[in-house]
Amino acid sequence: MKNIDEARVLLARRAFLSSLVSLPILLYFCSPGRNRNPPALALNNLDDFVIVNGWVLVKQDIVE
Amino acid sequence: MLIDLNNDKVRGAQYDVCIYGAGPAGITLARELAAKGKLVALVEGGSLEYSEESQSLYEGRETGNIRWDEELRACRLRYFGGTSNHWGGRCGIFDPVDFESREYFGLPGWPIKREEILSYLPKALEIVDIPIHALPAIVPTIKSKYFRLSEYALSPPTRFGGKYLDEIKSSSKIHAYINANLVTLKLAENGSSLSGTEVRNFKRKSFTFTAGQHIMAMGAIENARILLNSDKQQRGGVGNRNDMVGRCFMEHFNVAYGRFVVEDHQAIGNIFELNPTAALMKEHGIGNGVLAFDPSTEAVMYGRLKVLKKAMRDAICESDFAASMLRKFKDVDCPGDGVISSMIEQAPNPDSRVTLDSEVDPFGLRRVKLNWSMSDADRKTIRVLGIETAKEMARMRLARIQLKDFILNDQLEISDIGPHCHHMGTTRMSSDPRHGVVDVNSKVHGISNLYIAGSSVFPTGGGINPTLTIIMLALRLGEHISRLPK
User: Fold this and answer.
1) pTM over 0.90
2) Neighbouring residues of B345: CB distance < 8 A, sequence distance ≥ 6
3) Predicted local confidence at residue B298, as pLDDT
4) Closest Cα in chain B, distance from residue A59 (Å)
5) What are the contacts of B299-305 at 24+ separation with CB within 8 A?
6) B346-365: per-residue pLDDT in tens?
7) What residues of chain A lie within 8 A of the CB of B400, using their CB?
8) Scanning B103, B212, B282, B352, which has its CA 20 to 30 A from the CA of B197?
9) Which of B100-114, B154-168, B259-273, B325-339 has the least mean pLDDT?
10) Which among A20, A34, A35, A56 is the top mutation candidate for probing chain B, defined by the most B β-carbons within 10 Å of its own β-carbon?
């Protein structure tokens, strides 16, 4: 039988690693989806273009 | 013939030409002049291999508003073959607009025609092992008034020392000296020609070299340093009556512009490079450049936890929300993201310059002080190129670009910027000695037998790697010198 302290360390390590793996999975299922278009928050206007979170986009392409 | 100045007995010889610096320009010139029957001394400060003793002579101080802390030491190599011992091989041709007058630069540009340089292109391509029809390159056209796909070709890359050493050793017309450090240019009494030069080995023994013509081919920083240090007979240094030696030091800026997503893979593919057209440059009064679009491939993780790190990164990148949250703290590129790097022309700026420091090297020469400076003209070029590229790519539905904050906001300092190790301009070419150091034949103004080869004579830097132009200019200079009366 293993030493109790060693067992505790092993359990803690496993719990930590499990949480590291499960956290991204949780975030993935909670994310708003894989749409690569950034949120429609206009910051600047450049003629027929708009800049949204640094993305330079044609105005007519923005879906409100 | 190869002579080690540290060890071999040196017999005096009267040379037709002495060339200082055995890099691409120096070796090209030596071969060219020897082929035309000239007796040439090719004088190289380093040895056949890298040594700390030689490389440490490149140390100096950087004081400009752009600093890399390794610009002086890591960019250059001080041994036979020069910086060709670690160059990447990318070759291209200056654009026609680079030879047109661009008043917004404030200083005159090239005083010679582009076609004159390009007449040496076939021979230059052969020297760097590029097929003769590779340049000008044939690239797809895109329907844009303001941008075109870049044209370039790749040398293997050619290591000049490795490729040409045997030929030079067996040549009776080329005496190649290694461990031979140029320390002083000696003027004749009239001050309008060189009577000779002082060269020292690493045992500090001095030798005098005399020749009909002398050519400095040691790179933009070292050419300027030696001219400035030779100030015992002419105040300010040789060829510096108008205080232009060392000025207009130019690099190409490597600005990380941001990310991109390709929309039309068929039209462009995942990897492409863009140059602005003359129309865009003239409309906005900006310089040239290349924006390179590369997909971010799998990152290599290091350390004992590399498997875990990769798993975490891949998991985070699967979620846009998680990736955007992490990017508030750390810049993360996910597989499939494209990243945009660049090579941006710097405007000739007299305040971006090489001067001398008070600290001296083991030969007693003052070390270099490099004040590499970015000007408002450079900031404008960087920002306009980024914004106009993004607009054009969006308009054409080719790609969508996310620009970094400092590109969009001119109140922010331009950070995330590095060098390309393309040192140019410190002895710029100009018909008018008030605006340059060498004339249209690369001869130093006011000195009848001193010439300069390499990118230190470039009056503007263009938006292309300099090596091919360096070689074409060396071939042109070789032809000019071979026609001079003995």
Assistant:
1) no
2) B250, B252, B287, B288, B289, B381, B460, B461, B462, B463
3) 54
4) 10
5) B299/B333, B299/B335
6) 999 999 999 999 999 999 99
7) 55-57
8) B352
9) B325-339
10) A56
